[in-house]
Every structure is written in structure tokens, then in C-alpha cells.
Design brief:
This protein has helices spanning 14-28, 38-42, 46-56, 66-75, 78-83, 97-103, 115-125, 157-161, 180-194, 341-348, 352-358, 363-372; strands at 9-12, 33-36, 60-63, 85-88, 105-109, 129-134, 162-168, 200-204, 219-222, 243-255, 260-261, 267-268, 273-278, 295-298, 301-309, 314-317, 331-335. By secondary structure, it is of the alpha/beta class. The strands form three sheets. It has an eight-stranded parallel β-barrel, surrounded by five helices. The chain is elongated, with a radius of gyration of 24 Å. It binds pyridoxal-5'-phosphate.
Length: 378
């Protein structure tokens, strides 16, 4: 790229990623930890994040789709790519088991309807595909329920046609593992897997991995915590934010009382104000709900968002800053060291991962920027 990059800049702190990885592994007390990197690593970018996790010792990656799995393989160099175990949470999802076998991928089966394609594959090739299996203990989303457990017994077709590596279940109240509903789900998980042949039992995620040995079983699969986004209502160890997002100031204007700011007068200045226009909008993933809500950070100060969120712009009131302190060409922090992604997400009325996920479209563009200018400009 020859021109200077002027779009929103997503930057990643890999020291923070290393810190969070070690914190999660320490909490897991030796059980294997897989990194959940679905939705382009929650928006941070698989290409940037997966090789770093590999270098930290992560050998297992969980994604939602076959295509995401291929992106994970592609992000790793030859030897690492071959050795990484990649599990696909959406299961076969209508694709052919051959596609998984060819790439050494493991589908996480979503229900009994996936047994027939596995049988077809075994008949065609004589091979048993490695699979993990979702158990639906209460989320009512994916997996085999209580009535379908007989299909998983050793004498059933599953074991004739496939090799089970993990039993997987997911909590409905993942942010609160001590909730009675979660305890019931765990009870079912224990009870059901007791009746089934041995495979790694995986229930712990970003929240429950910190909730003590009662949640560890044989395995943890962790996403949010690796990016420094707390997934728990309860106290968790210090995690450090990995992602930060900045956007440039385009203009600063002093306006009199009674001035409409943005479309349809969604804000009218109650007195003389200084308004900065920042180049970030819903097209970049800024939630539309931030009309007259929430803050950006400029010149070390939290400055309130005023007016609406346009496709590529938003206004902030910088009257509290000294005249000339905020200038066009400065970079406003959207989230990062001074404002957590959780804080802005709370103002928008969404979960932190929603805001993070929206940066998915920024990651590839930001990668181009980072090649051009590795320094993070605040
Ligand atoms: C997204 C997801 C995870 C990761 O959850 P975090 O709270 O981000 O760690 C784990 N398991 C399943 C089934 C998921 O869909």
C-alpha cells in the first residue's frame, strides 16, 4: 500500500494475548486448553491471532464453520498447520465428511441427523472420521439430548463409523456457572458421559474455566478471556485487553447554542459547544444505539457522543478540552487502554463480544495499515 491508511485502526497487543493465555492455562490447572477463534477470532483476525497462539503453545483451535477452519489452517506454516487440531462447532452442516477428512478437521456433531453422512463416508472410504459430539444438556441449541443418548452407546453406529475425541456441552448461563440451571446442566453432563465411552469431556469456557476444579473435567475451550474480555459476572483474574480501536478526527467546530448536530436534529446544543467529527460509523460496526450515548476518548478525556451514528461518522462534544487541544488528524480511542470495550458496549446496550465481533470487517484493512506503520498512534 502506498497511500497512508486513514480508516479506523484496530491494533492488537500480543503481550496481552500471551498474558491472558497463561492466565487461562493457570486457571485450568493443567487441563488442555483449546482456543475458540470463530468469527475471525471474534473480530481480531485469525491471520494475526492464530500463529501467535500457536507460538504460545496452543495446539487446538475451535471455529464455527468449515471455511473458518480452512482459514485457521492457512494462517499456520506447514508443520504447524499439519499438527494443529481444528474442531468445527457447526458440525458437518450439510457439507461432505470428505471435506473434513481431506483437511484433517474434526466436526462437532450437532445431532443424530449427522450419523447418516458419517455412515456414508465410512462405507465409501472404509475410514472412521474423528468427531466430537455436542450434548444438549439445557441450552437447546446443538447436540444430542437425553432421548438420543442410545445412539451414542458403544454398540451404536457412531462408534462403527467414527472416532469420538470430545464430549462437548455449552452452558445457557455461561456468564454465571454457579446458577442452578448451570449446575443442573453439569449434573446431566456428568450423568450422561458416565454412560458413554471415554472421550475428553469439555464444558469449561471463559467464565467457568475460572470457577474452580469442579468445572475443569478434561478440557477447556476458551475465546473471550483470551482477548481480555471478561465473560463472567463473578470476579475473574486480571485479564488484559488485546484489541484497541482508534478513528481519526476529521473536523472540529465551535457552534452556538441551539445548533443541530447530525441527522434530523437528534442533538441540539444547549449552549455554545465545540464539536469534533470522528470518522467511524455503523458501516464500521459502531452500534446505532449509541445515539447521544457513550463516550470516545480524545486528549486523555472521555468525550460524550452527541447526535446520531451515521454510516461513517459520529460527533463528540469536546467542549471540556482546551481550545486547540483537539485537532483534525488526531486519533480518538474508541476502545483500548483508556476505555474498555465492555464500557462502550454497555453504553450501546450490547455484550462486549458484539462490539468486538463488529470489528471483524476492520481487521483485514487494519492489517494493511499495520504493515505500513507498525507504531500504534494514540
Ligand atoms: C463461542 C463458544 C465458546 C467460547 O466461549 P467464550 O465464553 O468466548 O470462551 C465455547 N463453546 C462454544 C460451543 C461456543 O459457541
Amino acid at each position: 500500500m502506498n497511500a497512508t491508511y486513514d480508516g479506523p485502526r484496530l491494533a492488537l497487543d500480543f503481550d496481552a494475548l500471551a498474558h491472558n493465555w497463561r492466565t487461562v492455562c493457570a486457571a485450568g490447572m493443567g487441563q488442555p486448553v483449546g482456543a475458540v477463534v470463530k468469527n475471525d477470532a471474534y473480530g481480531l483476525g485469525v491471520a494475526a491471532v492464530v500463529p501467535r497462539l500457536w507460538a504460545l503453545g496452543c495446539r487446538e483451535f475451535w471455529v464455527a464453520t468449515l471455511h473458518e477452519a480452512l482459514a485457521v489452517r492457512h494462517s499456520l506454516r506447514d508443520a504447524a498447520a499439519g499438527a494443529a487440531r481444528i474442531l468445527v462447532l457447526n458440525g458437518l452442516a450439510g457439507t461432505r465428511p470428505e471435506d473434513f477428512a481431506a483437511q484433517g478437521l474434526t466436526p462437532v456433531l450437532t445431532g443424530p441427523h449427522e450419523l447418516a453422512p458419517l455412515a456414508g463416508y465410512a462405507a465409501r472410504t472404509g475410514a472412521r472420521l474423528p468427531v466430537a459430539v455436542h450434548l444438549d444438556t439445557g441450552l437447546t441449541r446443538l447436540g444430542f439430548g437425553a432421548a438420543q443418548l442410545p445412539a451414542l452407546q458403544p454398540q451404536g453406529a457412531l462408534w462403527r463409523d467414527a472416532q469420538v475425541t470430545h464430549w462437548v456441552t455449552h452452558l445457557g448461563r455461561f456468564h454465571d456457572p454457579e446458577a442452578p440451571q448451570c449446575l443442573l446442566q453439569r449434573e446431566r453432563f456428568v450423568e450422561w458421559t458416565r454412560q458413554l465411552p471415554a472421550a475428553l469431556r469439555s464444558i469449561a469456557t471463559s467464565s467457568s474455566v475460572f470457577a474452580g476444579p469442579g468445572w475443569h473435567f478434561d478440557h477447556a475451550r476458551v475465546g473471550s478471556a483470551l482477548w481480555g474480555v471478561p465473560a463472567s459476572q463473578r470476579a475473574t483474574p486480571m485479564l488484559r485487553p488485546v484489541a484497541s480501536l482508534h478513528a481519526p478526527v476529521l473536523r472540529v467546530a465551535d457552534v452556538p447554542a441551539g445548533t443541530e448536530v447530525g441527522y434530523a436534529g437528534s442533538y441540539t446544543t444547549p449552549g455554545p459547544r465545540r464539536i469534533a467529527t470522528v470518522a467511524l460509523g455503523y458501516g464500521d460496526g459502531l452500534p446505532f444505539s449509541l445515539v447521544n450515548r457513550g463516550y470516545l476518548v480524545l486528549a486523555g478525556r472521555h468525550v460524550p457522543i452527541v447526535g446520531g451514528v451515521a454510516m461513517g461518522m459520529v460527533a463528540v462534544d469536546v467542549s471540556a478540552c482546551a481550545p486547540g487541544e483537539v485537532r483534525p488528524g488526531m486519533w480518538a480511542e474508541v476502545y483500548g487502554a483508556q476505555q474498555s470495550v465492555q464500557a462502550l458496549a454497555a453504553a450501546a446496550g450490547v455484550a462486549a463480544n458484539v462490539l468486538l465481533a463488529l470489528s471483524a470487517r476492520l481487521a483485514p484493512r487494519s492489517a494493511a495499515w499495520q504493515e505500513e506503520a507498525p507504531e500504534v498512534v494514540a
